[in-house]
Amino acid sequence: MPLQWEENEGPGGIEIEAPVEGFEAGETYEILLTLRRPGMALSGFQVTARSDDGGSQAGGLHASPAEDGRVTVSTDQGIEYGYQVGSGSQPSSDGVSQWTLLWTAPADASANVVFNAAANAADGDDTAEGDEIYTASVTVAPAQH
């Protein structure tokens, strides 16, 4: 799957891996988020999947079974938010954190879907100084037949 990379302030950034080649109605896809920053001690993220036709919830987000205890999804005002919990704040390797969610495409695949992500690469000193916030978005379209 192609990636969307958006460079923000500071060294590093967040990547969203999503079905940019097109999605099928009702099918489930893996969404992979990768945060990179040298020296990162702690990390966190939030991601949504919204219709580009009004911003409503698009399909359903679910934590991957492999992410038990690291990732969860909650709903606020009709929008689902995926984010880290527990051990999901620990980098996966030196300077890299990854999280996997499952996304079930809407049953009515008539509108594009925008994945918006924000991530915090923290230095672990319990202050905001030295931490970096990165954002990215990727738009996916229904598959063309």
What tags apply to this protein structure?
145 residues; mainly beta; 0% helix
Q: Quick summary of this structure?
A:
With 145 residues, this protein is an all-beta fold. Helices cover 0% and strands 50% of the residues.
Task: Please give the structural blueprint.
Elements: E1 3-7, E2 13-17, E3 28-36, E4 42-51, E5 60-63, E6 71-76, E7 79-84, E8 96-104, E9 113-122, E10 132-140
Antiparallel strand pairs: 1-2, 2-3, 3-8, 4-7, 4-9, 5-8, 6-7, 9-10
Description:
0% of the residues lie in helices and 50% in strands. The radius of gyration is 15 Å and the shape is elongated. The protein has one domain: Reeler domain (Immunoglobulin-like), CATH 2.60.40. The strands form two sheets. A five-stranded antiparallel β-sheet has the order 1-2-3-8-5, with no helix packed on it. Strands 6-7-4-9-10 form a five-stranded antiparallel β-sheet, with no helix packed on it. The N terminus is likely disordered. It is built from no helices and ten strands. It has 145 residues and is mainly beta.
Radius of gyration: 15 Å
Structural class: mainly beta
Please outline the major beta sheet.
Answer: 5 strands, antiparallel
Helix share bin: under 10%
Give the name of the CATH superfamily: Reeler domain
> How large is the share of residues in beta strands?
over 45%
Q: Give the spatial strand order of the biggest sheet.
A: 1-2-3-8-5
**Average pLDDT figure:** 91
The total strand number stands at 10
Shape: elongated
User: H/E order of the elements?
Assistant: EEEEEEEEEE
N-to-C span: 19 Å
Low-confidence sequence ranges: 1-7
CATH C-level name: Mainly Beta
Could you tell me the CATH topology label. Immunoglobulin-like
CATH architecture annotation = Sandwich
* Number of helices in the DSSP assignment: 0
Number of domains: 1
